[in-house]
# Entry
Amino acid sequence: MLTSLIKAFTNLFKKPQTIDYPVTPIIKDREYRGLIEYGEESCIYCLKCEKACPPGAILFVKTETPSENEKNKKGLQYHYNPYLCIYCSECVRACPKPDEALWQSNKKPLPATKEGKVNESWFELEKLKKTE
Amino acid sequence: MKKTINIPLGSQHISLLEPVRFKFECENEKIISVDSDVGFVHRGIERACTTKFKFDAIGYVVARVCGLCAITHSLSYTAAVEKLLGGEITKKAKYLRILLLELDRIHSHMLCLSHTCENAGFEAMFMRIMGDRELVMEIQELLTGNRVQFDYINIGGVNRDINSEVAKKIIENLYEVKQRVLGYMDEFTNNWSLSLKFKGIGALSLDDAYSFNAIGPLARASGLNIDVRNEIDYLPFNEIGFKMQTQFEGDINARNIVRLNEIFNSILMCENIVNGLPEGEIFTKLKGKPNGEAIVRFEAPRGELMYYVKGNGSAMLERVRIKTPTFACIPAFTHIFVGENYADAPAILASFDPCLSCTAK
Ligand code: SF4
Ligand code: SF4
# Structure
């Protein structure tokens, strides 16, 4: 009884277990699995990442204004959907040039908004990919 | 005049976390018969595995069957495919797999214990256990890079190696967890609302556990020596100090004690793994496409999880069947309710630790 009273009293002055988000930021681990980042200059357009991705969050679609990269013979452009991605990093393991062409950061995606038309624009790309 | 009244519990109810419905037929306070219904959240995962995804991506799909035992699902699937591809993975990868499996068990059991407390009206204890559970979540995040969706296991090994910093943190945190769990042991055996009130409630006898095919902590609390970890040689559980935990009363209290003891055992196993991790690669490339049938069983936190995988030599599988622990336990659940007071139903239900997202996949 006495111990529980003392405990209850000391608990009044203890810091809370939760943190005061967003005033105090959440500490992210350096190794946290976050967004996939892409370096166009080093990419050799082997499309291995596209094939490896389980949910299909990476698409290479033909574009009118292809990059200068000489490996890009078919005139493709890289598209990545951070909201479809499950951050499994299969793509990075499949990539022949990890860390240069494709790597995983510890950043989080921004919240998707209606204005951003995340779904609509992605469905367009998927349709384009299918008709290719 | 009809003497009984029907009271439904679920599919949405304040004491339920997940959609299951029990229809109780009660005479005064006593429950005299029970009807159960699962399947409110069918997601068609088995079908998706055979139509939408290639076999090497399914490990990530089935991990999303359940947030709590994500690791057991992907592990069982991967093990089944590895059996079909006929490769051997390295010892280090096996150890790391067990490490995560046991960490998963610790935090899942802590979650169940906290819900038992909550349903007993002991909010403070619920908060305490959930707060301490963060210690385990933290090391899981360090180890895999994510709190819930670990995506740690792939066909041929594991995705990440463990470094000395993480190993140190694991040992530190597990020591801390052990101290806290010792405290719970005291509460769960001596506190009035957690032990005395639960003694003799929701009891399942050994014979019934046997004939209703109970598995997992539910069966072990009744004295049934059943634990898949003891029966498979695919992962070396016995090598690293696995011990079967059983109790004999079969009531809610016994289930809590079994879970607490299992947490201790799991902590011991994790420490053994981290301290005695073999050298070697974490990944072996396995070639080919799955052809034939394989069945793999694993002990999820709630009991035996079974995967059946059938491939035909192409990238798409022919059939993936998942039998989850809660589904197998439902006959035993309904049996336990009969003869109990309706007021005890939420507490009994929490002590089963049902996982409906697994059951209705
Ligand atoms: S991390 Fe996984 S889901 Fe995300 S793009 Fe890479 S392979 Fe696809
Ligand atoms: S796998 Fe790497 S190199 Fe190949 S297309 Fe993808 S990013 Fe480029």
Observations:
- Chain A has four helices and four strands.
- Chain A has a mean pLDDT of 83.
- Residues 53 and 128 of chain A are 18 Å apart (CA to CA).
